[in-house]
Design brief:
The protein is an alpha+beta fold and 67 residues long. It has one domain. 15% of the residues lie in helices and 21% in strands. It has one helix and four strands. The strands form two sheets. The protein has a two-stranded antiparallel sheet. A two-stranded antiparallel sheet has the order 3-4. It is flat, with a radius of gyration of 18 Å. The relative contact order is 0.12. The mean pLDDT is 85. One of its GO terms (biological process) is translation. It holds the Pfam family 40S_S4_C. This is Small ribosomal subunit protein eS4 C-terminal domain-containing protein. One of its GO terms (cellular component) is cytosolic small ribosomal subunit.
Length: 67
């Protein structure tokens, strides 16, 4: 139940899950934002280079300088 603000006295929940990406970073998101592309480490589809991991701006710059 929300106890303050514009949504005061409204009751509701979201299903939130915690996910680990291929680099080991953990983040949480709503269950509705996630879909399955495989089971365990076996993928049912192919992924582009980088396994679908978005690099930060600093990681992109470092990668460009190393090339």
């Amino acid at each position: 139940m929300v106890t303050g603000g514009r949504n005061r006295l409204c009751v509701g929940t979201f299903e939130t899950i915690h996910v680990n990406d291929a680099l080991g970073h953990e983040f949480s998101t709503r269950l509705g934002n996630v879909f399955t592309i495989g089971k365990g480490t076996k993928l049912w589809i192919s992924l582009p280079k980088g396994k679908g991991i978005k690099l930060t701006i600093l990681e992109e710059a470092k990668k460009r300088l190393e090339s």
